[in-house]
């Protein structure tokens, strides 16, 4: 009976019990509680919390912190995979340079991605500690957590944790008696995927429309309000405390022989799998291992394709399941590791319909700044809708090729358009026949005619 | 970090009266940033929390508090999807239409919702109870298909769950 049903309230969770997680092997999640409650300040401090801050701020200098991050090869977990240590080494510092900002990109909106939510909702102090370390390395005077507006629970937990940290002296003047001062404010957004692009994020932080900025100058040279600014993803920052406490060698060793990338990663799976979820695993595990943990596909379905790390990554096939999921290997297969949370596509799913869904997302979320993205993506959606109905015309599939190519890297201000192009191009490559089946009349007129402009 | 802000009487613009508490909250928020303009999104949210949406007259009022032109405030108000520039229902349902939800039953969920509420995406029920909107991936893909009502996230939500889920919102 309906009245007996429980409301399916969503709770973020990790599918590994505490008994399987240790400080030496699970730097991101070993402190998490099995009951899913927040690791508060007392709990965090009892589990090595803020030890890295005390040690580093008092005994190290910023350059050694940057060197450790570089050596550990912590690659950006927001999806781009850029070395965090290298990014930090490029921040303008010293001389007449004003102290700048650390901005945590907590605008998790990549379709298929639900990892930063877990870290923020259950272990906010790890992020705060990571931001303090990043601030020390980059000589930042202030930090912002740019949190997407829909993450209401994250906002509640983070606000409380920031207050706890401030009361305990981990934020504010003279942190841990080191003379270093730094504080953090929570900035909540109001929607729009594009805010996750780091320069659009800075415009949004400044209270403007979230259009991307030209690079260079990079944020490390001129970011928020023209000051040197480091923008790092939540998970990236959460790696810093363990790297500095246990060392770059240990961190590198976590991934073993699988890959040159260091550390662990929050991997996950969603779509029609039996146990969608999240796991902290050594970076470089295979898609098969993740799919196994997710219990395979529902109802005995076969795997058709998968996105390794969100909507803006390229489709991989079942034959790619045994590749190590690191940034370089996945890149060589014409995709990207992205956020590392795989979206699983079952054999009975129409790729044309799925692409229509994906491209409608990218079209809606385009900020409208660059023409190929603003005008090309809605056109792409129109073509896909026609193909989906079996009403496509000759030349439509080739036109999709062209529209996707026009969105390629370097043709627009930011990575939104290339992100929209990658799943489309890989789907057209692997499943072209499905798109061609949507073409109704071989004699029909292609939709490639120029659009008239400025005529009455 | 706070810039000097002008002391003011109650701001009234185009028939809109900015609540003094809201103005104070905006000024406090502005103190977190190098420039007051940065509080623009939060200022819009402050107005929205009180009125349910952002009425026209609020735009020049916020502009005055933040020391920017009304056009830049309106530009921001119309850019962000969670700022409502027209009245919405007492509760806003955000249905995730991104890939993982699409693969796990978004179409059926949306159909069940539109049938039950008698409205489509972007519309408000005649009794003013619900507004239905699509939303970018809610980050609840392990609970797909997911939706959010006001501050609460639900997932996985089947059509059968809707009566229970919706009854909590009057």
TrEMBL record, chain A:
Keyword match Flavoprotein: yes
Enzyme class: translocase
Biased composition (Basic and acidic residues): 436-448
Catalytic activity: a quinone + NADH + 5 H(+)(in) = a quinol + NAD(+) + 4 H(+)(out)
GO MF annotations, alphabetized: 4 iron, 4 sulfur cluster binding; FMN binding; metal ion binding; NAD binding; NADH dehydrogenase (ubiquinone) activity; quinone binding
Phosphoprotein is among the record's keywords: no
Region (Disordered): 436-456
UniProt domain NADH-ubiquinone oxidoreductase 51kDa subunit iron-sulphur binding: residue ranges: 352-397
PROSITE patterns: COMPLEX1_51K_1, COMPLEX1_51K_2
Documented EC number(s): 7.1.1.-
Family matches, as Pfam families: Complex1_51K (PF01512), NADH_4Fe-4S (PF10589)
Cofactor: FMN; [4Fe-4S] cluster
Superkingdom to which the source organism belongs: Bacteria
SUPFAM superfamilies named among the record's database cross-references: Nqo1 FMN-binding domain-like, Nqo1 middle domain-like, Nqo1C-terminal domain-like
Function: NDH-1 shuttles electrons from NADH, via FMN and iron-sulfur (Fe-S) centers, to quinones in the respiratory chain.
Similarity comment text for this entry: Belongs to the complex I 51 kDa subunit family.
Protein name per its UniProtKB record: NADH-quinone oxidoreductase subunit F
Origin organism lineage: Bacteria, Pseudomonadati, Pseudomonadota, Gammaproteobacteria, Pseudomonadales
TrEMBL record, chain B:
Cofactor remark: Binds 1 [2Fe-2S] cluster.
Positions bound to [2Fe-2S] cluster: 96, 101, 137, 141
UniProt keyword list: 2Fe-2S, Iron, Iron-sulfur, Metal-binding
Substrates-to-products reaction catalysed: a quinone + NADH + 5 H(+)(in) = a quinol + NAD(+) + 4 H(+)(out)
Gene3D superfamilies from the UniProt entry: Glutaredoxin (3.40.30.10), NADH-quinone oxidoreductase subunit E (1.10.10.1590)
Subunit record text: Composed of 13 different subunits. Subunits NuoCD, E, F, and G constitute the peripheral sector of the complex.
Top-level taxonomic group: Bacteria
Cofactor: [2Fe-2S] cluster
The organism of origin for this protein: Marinobacter santoriniensis NKSG1
CDD domains according to UniProt: TRX_Fd_NuoE (cd03064)
Official protein name in the record: NADH-quinone oxidoreductase subunit E
């Amino acid at each position: 009976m309906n009245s007996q049903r429980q409301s399916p309230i969503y709770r973020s969770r990790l599918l590994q019990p505490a008994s399987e997680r240790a400080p030496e092997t699970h730097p991101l999640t070993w402190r998490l509680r099995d009951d899913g409650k927040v690791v508060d300040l007392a709990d965090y401090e009892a589990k090595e919390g803020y030890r890295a801050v005390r040690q580093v701020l008092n005994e190290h200098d910023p350059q050694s912190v940057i060197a450790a991050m570089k050596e550990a090869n912590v690659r950006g977990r927001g999806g781009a995979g850029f070395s965090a240590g290298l990014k930090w080494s490029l921040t303008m510092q010293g001389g007449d340079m004003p102290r700048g900002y650390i901005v945590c990109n907590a605008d998790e909106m990549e379709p298929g991605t639900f990892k930063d939510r877990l870290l923020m909702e259950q272990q906010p102090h790890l992020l705060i500690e990571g931001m303090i370390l990043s601030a020390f390395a980059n000589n930042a005077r202030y930090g912002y957590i740019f949190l997407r507006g829909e993450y209401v629970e994250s906002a509640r937990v983070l606000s409380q944790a920031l207050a706890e940290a401030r009361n305990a002296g981990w934020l504010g003047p003279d942190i841990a008696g080191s003379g270093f001062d730094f504080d953090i404010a929570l900035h909540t957004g109001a929607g729009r995927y594009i805010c996750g692009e780091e320069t659009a994020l800075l415009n949004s932080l400044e209270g403007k429309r979230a259009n991307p900025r030209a690079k260079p100058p990079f944020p490390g040279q001129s970011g928020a309000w023209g000051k040197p600014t480091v923008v790092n993803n939540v998970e990236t920052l959460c790696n810093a405390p363990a790297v500095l406490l246990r060392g770059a060698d240990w961190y590198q060793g976590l991934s073993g022989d699988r890959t040159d990338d260091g550390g662990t990663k929050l991997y996950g799976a969603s779509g029609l799998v039996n146990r969608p979820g999240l796991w902290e695993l050594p970076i470089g595990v295979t898609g098969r291992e993740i799919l196994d943990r997710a219990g395979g596909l529902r109802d005995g379905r076969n795997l058709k394709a998968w996105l390794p790390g969100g909507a803006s990554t390229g489709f991989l096939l079942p034959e790619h399941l045994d590749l190590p999921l690191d940034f370089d290997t996945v890149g060589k297969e014409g995709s990207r590791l992205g956020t590392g949370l795989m979206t699983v596509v079952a054999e009975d799913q129409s790729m044309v319909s799925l692409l229509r869904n994906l491209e409608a997302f990218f079209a809606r979320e385009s900020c409208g700044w660059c023409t190929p993205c603003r005008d090309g993506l809605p056109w792409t959606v129109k073509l896909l809708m026609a193909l989906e109905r079996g009403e496509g015309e000759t030349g439509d599939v080739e036109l999709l090729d062209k529209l996707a190519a026009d969105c390629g890297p370097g043709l627009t201000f930011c990575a939104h358009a290339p992100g929209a192009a990658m799943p489309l191009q890989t789907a057209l490559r692997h499943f072209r026949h499905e798109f061609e089946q949507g073409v109704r009349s071989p004699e029909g007129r292609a939709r490639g005619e120029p659009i008239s402009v400025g005529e009455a | 970090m706070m810039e000097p802000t002008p002391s003011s009487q109650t701001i009234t613009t185009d028939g809109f009266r900015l609540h003094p508490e809201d103005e104070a909250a905006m000024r406090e928020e502005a103190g977190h940033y190098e420039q007051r303009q940065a509080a623009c999104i939060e200022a819009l949210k402050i107005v929205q929390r009180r009125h349910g949406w952002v009425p026209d007259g609020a735009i020049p009022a916020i502009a005055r508090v933040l020391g920017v032109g009304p056009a830049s405030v309106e530009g921001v108000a119309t850019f962000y999807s969670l700022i409502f520039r027209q009245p919405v229902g007492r509760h806003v349902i955000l249905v995730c239409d991104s890939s993982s939800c699409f693969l796990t039953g978004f179409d059926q969920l949306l159909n069940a919702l539109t049938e039950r509420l008698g409205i489509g995406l972007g519309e408000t029920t005649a009794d003013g109870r619900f507004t239905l909107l699509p939303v970018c991936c809610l980050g609840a893909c392990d609970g797909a298909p997911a939706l959010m009502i006001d501050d609460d996230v639900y997932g996985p939500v089947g059509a059968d769950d809707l009566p229970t889920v919706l009854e909590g919102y009057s």
